[in-house]
DNA sequence: AAACTAATAAACAGAT
DNA sequence: AATCTGTTTATTAGTT
């Protein structure tokens, strides 16, 4: 994530506009969106610089906007904050406003908010553009005049000749070309930035891209419409003003032509009023061109192949519509109530037909999606790094925090989940994102990592009595599903009680019954940890089976199998986590993540992840998830677990593998005692299940969170 | 501090 | 006889 440096922020202040030298070129290939100007304008402010400036201003305005929003959210009276489409903890933004990146901003602001911002910024930009071009033209005019004077003098002195006249013409041409070039460069710059995804897809960026595709009047009209302001003469006036200013100098008459020349879609001669029909066709063409270009870009591959392209109003599903939910139209900024699907479709066709407004909104939504995808990619990358790091961890000597862990694994666990700092390996990108509540909260991995550490010392000193409080580990199904591979390969003690593990194993089996040996095998198969100290944990398993009433021994033809008495199991464990609905809601909305206690966070994270992780099982998740969370945490997990028991627990384990447990059976028992640590490590390094896991998350999270 | 839960250890019995 | 399975008791440790 990019952080605005102080110097860059300073540049945004108008008073600093004279600092021409600071705007010198620094073409950025892919590092950042800053710089990238081209010293093409004789030491004057280049168009690119101007854009940069506007961008920065937009950013600042957005920041202010955000702060307002945040303070509004934070006020005690406004507990019932309407959930914005993109759920990002405001606290993140609150911490240090100047650290807010455009992306974060984009995330935090809802489309309507973005639109408002856009409108605001657009006015500003137009004004500045006007000023800028006026300045440029004046200057050019001046230069032309002096040139002409010189020429005249020359003519007078050296008697007029054809050559001189020619020279004059060429010089005039040169100036014209210079202007054109400037314009082109500006356009190109924006285009490039956008293609590279480097433009902070901020209000300004969206505007610029719009601007790039349309003439000023188009732009004006579009945004007037988008923001709900009736398209009045004022807009035209403003547009005209801009056009006039550009045409004011005879030497710049070529500008509009040039501007339109290299924008393929901009076929309209400037100032000419065009029919809505043509306009629409053009817009649509523009949209599809954008989509096409996007799909070609492998930087954001998810998008074009995604489930719902932005122009989803073309496809109307009979049963459900992505833009329709909870009796509301989900079109950005629209919350029209529609009783049924028919009414909604009617509404969709009437209110959101293919017109300028819809197109613009669509555009904004595209930007939002694109931005989210970028963000997602970054987060995924971070997660990957974290996982890689943690996977490597057991192999590393950890002298520094060893005594700490020995003291008490449990208390360490608590402390860690509250705030991970101290001796623990920090997830990367600490510099870029000093405060990311999301990282602390729903990271299933984090809990695993904690056990990694506490566990690794267990071996050093012998068995410690590890208390796996159910609080931390109730949603065994999701945790397992998430980190199945991890536990399989890493010699990490799973954060579950024996009882819950046994139950899970049994419920996971096809017949919901297992022999003792099969349970053993399940343990060894699923957890590297249980490939050693077999006498100990097997004894524990037996002990648990006998002790807990929830495990019922059933005599079989071939012997005996163990089953689970679910009622008894639930009886045994009183619901420890019963958050108030409002609290849970707040947590979900991301507002409370920062202050909530760790167990709540973890539990929430896991439960929500479990929902996300089992799409085929919990078919309509959006509506159900909230309600289920209200019921209580245990219920969620148990529900999922039960349903889950039919299928596979992990994406990497196919059902077939389950149906042939015999194959795996003999293996572990033979090499069990002190099994090969080398191969274990090897497994750790090369078998990273993350890609697939992340994929699932990637596909599910955004749609979930956005609802 | 007490009550509770879970992990661990171990003794023991019956079955294979 | 050895091992597996199952039960039971005791101890320890962590949590509430």
From TrEMBL:
InterPro entries: FH_FOXP4, Fork_head_dom, FOXP, FOXP-CC, TF_fork_head_CS_2, WH-like_DNA-bd_sf, WH_DNA-bd_sf. Residues 1-18, 640-659 have a biased composition (Polar residues). Residues 493-566 form the Fork-head domain. Residues 1-45, 297-321, 442-462, 640-707 are annotated as: Disordered. Its main location: nucleus. Keywords: DNA-binding, Metal-binding, Nucleus, Repressor, Transcription, Transcription regulation, Zinc, Zinc-finger. Residues 28-38 have a biased composition (Gly residues). GO terms for cellular component: nucleus. It is found in: Nucleus. Residues 493-566 bind DNA. Residues 695-707 have a biased composition (Acidic residues). Residues 452-462 have a biased composition (Basic residues). GO terms for molecular function: DNA-binding transcription repressor activity, RNA polymerase II-specific; RNA polymerase II cis-regulatory region sequence-specific DNA binding; zinc ion binding. PANTHER family: FORKHEAD BOX P, ISOFORM C, FORKHEAD BOX PROTEIN P4. This is Forkhead box protein P4 Fork head-related protein-like A.
